[in-house]
Specification:
- The complex is a heterotrimer of chains A (368), B (210) and C (295).
- Chain A has 368 residues and is of the alpha+beta class.
- Chain A contains 14 helices and four strands.
- The mean pLDDT of chain A is 91.
- Chain B has 210 residues and is of the alpha/beta class.
- In chain B, strands 1-2-3-6-7 form a five-stranded mixed sheet. Chain B has a three-stranded antiparallel sheet with strand order 5-4-8.
- The longest helix of chain B has 17 residues.
- Chain B is globular and about 45 Å long.
- In chain C, 26% of the residues lie in helices and 17% in strands.
- Chain C is an alpha/beta fold and 295 residues long.
- Classes of the chains: A alpha+beta (368), B alpha/beta (210), C alpha/beta (295).
- Chains A and C meet through helix 1, helix 5, helix 13 and helix 14 of A and helix 3 and strand 11 of C.
Chain lengths: 368, 210, 295
Amino acid sequence: MYVAVKGGEAAIRNAHRLLADRRRGDRSVPALRLDQIVEQLGLGVDRVMSEGSLYDRELAALAIVQARGDLIEAIFLVRAYRTTLPRFGYTRPIDTAAMLAERRVSATYKDLPGGQVLGPTFDYTHRLLDPELATGAEVAQPDRREDADAEPMPRVSDILGHEGLIEADGPLPAGHVTGDITREPMEFPMDRDTRLQALSRGDEGFLLALAYSTQRGYARSHPFVGEVRIGEVELELDVPELDFPVTLGRIRVTECQMVNQFKGSAKAPPQFTRGYGLVFGQSERKAMAMSLCDRALRASELGEDITAAAQDEEFVISHSDNVQATGFVEHLKLPHYVDFQAELDLVRRMRAEHEAKSADETHREAAE
Amino acid sequence: MPRTDSSAVQTADHITGGFAKPVFDAQAIFRAVMDAMARPGTIQPTKAETQPPRPLSPVAAAITLALCDNDTPLWLDPALRQSAAVASWLGFHTGAPSADTPADAHFALVADPAGLIAFENFAQGTQEYPDRSTTLILQVTSLSSGAQLVLEGPGIDGRAAFAPTPLPRHFVEQWKQNRARFPRGVDLIFAAPEGIACLPRTTRIRAMEG
Amino acid sequence: MSTQDQNIATYNFAYLDEQTKRMIRRAILKGIAIPGYQVPFASREMPMPYGWGTGGVQVTASIIGPDDVLKVIDQGADDTTNAVSIRNFFRKVADVETTTETAKATIIQTRHRIPELPLTEGQTLVYQVPIPEPLRFLAPRETETRKMHALEEYGLMHVKLYEDIARHGHIATTYAYPVKVEGRYVMDPSPTPKFDNPKMHMSPALQLFGAGREKRIYAIPPFTDVVSLDFEDHPFEVQKFDKPCALCGAEQVYLDEVVLDDRGGRMFVCSDTDHCETRRAEGHVGELGVKEAAE
């Protein structure tokens, strides 16, 4: 006799206990501490903060452990927590020209004020697995530049701007209040402020692939890295009762200014145009990909033909969020048997009609 | 960003008189409004109290607290605008910025419906976004002692009736025009001592019996 | 929530913060005032994945109060894992009474079905919606579909349905079958089988639809005209099953096909588990069922 399946509740409980067990793994191996993740898997932490849109290294590390190292799952955990937090206000725009930069490179100039600073980069490392890391060998202290040697590091876009050869920082229309994609429903076409927000939390892999596609000719944009800089910037908040901004602290960000040759169009003169990327923490790949996507998405603003996926704002922004994407792709594993039953019934019916028809035809042909 | 009214000096008076249990009171008032909007003409009892400064009524104030915040520009009719106490009480409890014009208002709070400007002055929404229209909260003295309005439309099984008073001038004609703008148009929430009733833009007024 | 660790962040009643609830509540009121129109709302990340009912959960969280009795179904069943998970979520964050009995519930959150028992005036049915836009697969761009709704330009939908007829002799849409609400907006009823479409028409219950990932809320007020799109020569028809439910003998209900073995053995049973259980408790027995008392 058939008995309907019951016990969903117990199944879920047991599955989650098993998950906790697998997450912990072999009990003879010490459990990971959050500070170990914060200190030693810092770039993973940065990605979770960036795409989770929440600057908190400890929480990101907790999310990574809880997600067993699945970064998209960790991003999701952080987002779901972030959404419950109250808002106290919006900070002033950060000043990246005043960044305490640990790294700054420009591809457009051999040397420039503030210098080329390599910083903690994978660039020019030879990608040879290093067995010493497996043994936990001592790591020497790095050399440090004296603070006195640090000179101001103006942004490359400002340097080019003196000649008038690059578009200025785009002014927003008068009265424009900066949007917040986490508070207002998105609407297409988007303004650049909200579009940049969406890109900044967009999936690194998705933006990387789109950026790559522009380099291969799908909306080619003649890009040069004006500069990439990584370092700490100050956060300031305007408080209505005070006539000076209050400093809240510092955050680490990566900024990329992509400079693109532009022949001019009906809407804009020949000049260099820009694509912009800014993300929490250290993630050059993401910031660069973002700036290429930003530039591609400015096509209609600059009067360019829209011919490629990377230029299609609704396509790019609607599909860049990995929390949304993973949820919807993975929801296909939920039961769909009610709809499947409806389809099954239809296909059976159509198949029966089809077979009746061909049988009929065979019969007629035989008779002829 | 919310604007703060410089004349609104906040004192203890403006801080008291809100919901006693903000989370549950707001939910109870919202449910009454939702049920009233879903069933036009029905009178939904209110289960939460506020004590706002006059001439703002406790029920209208409760609805405003339940629905408005710094994302919703709020328009006050002249009767309410005259009272600095009302503005600062609402400012403290909702944080709602004041709407520069009725066409900018997400909500309009009306203490004197008989003196109200025409509905067409308020945001009507667009054909693409008909939701971007003003919801009017009308303070009335009664939902049963005015002229009987006979209603038809979504939410109503056949016909319904209620009798709010006082009403804006040329109400039935104005409402007909509002209905003709569908899907654009304003929606009305009536706040009376005995409860809450609504007229969404879909409701047709069949007859008005004196 | 008192049972939670003091160090862990505590959450508000029904999880959402009050500002989010107000935003969703405003969208619900607009949805009711413009039946079938999809109101954009700033959907939040929820502690369950997008596509798993976040829209429905946000709607339920915004309307639910301490006096409500909540029922959650998925595929018509109360004990499917996602329904269990959502029900537990609300038990935890809103401390509300839950039930599996359709008649007892004040709020029913559903995925893919409308209960068989006719709903009543005090009830609200909250649908989880994956793709709220009925025109999405005809025109993938929001900018285009929004214009089509604005202009009431639904010719493309009729063309699509008619192409089905021309090619297959049937309308090949079996679920998420489009409806027209109050003669104005074409609406996606969510992926319910078209069997359930007639239940939406003139229902005494309020029907709310939440699409979290796509950030839309829409509504059908009670006693509202809901018509499934069709043609004079091809009127709308619902699925018919050859046999009654094998367990409770119910006819004119939606049935699930249960595979019994790998030799083609199968049976059909009610998809609405509460309906089936209630009938069996009342003594109804199907072909393969047993008397309740015998168990």
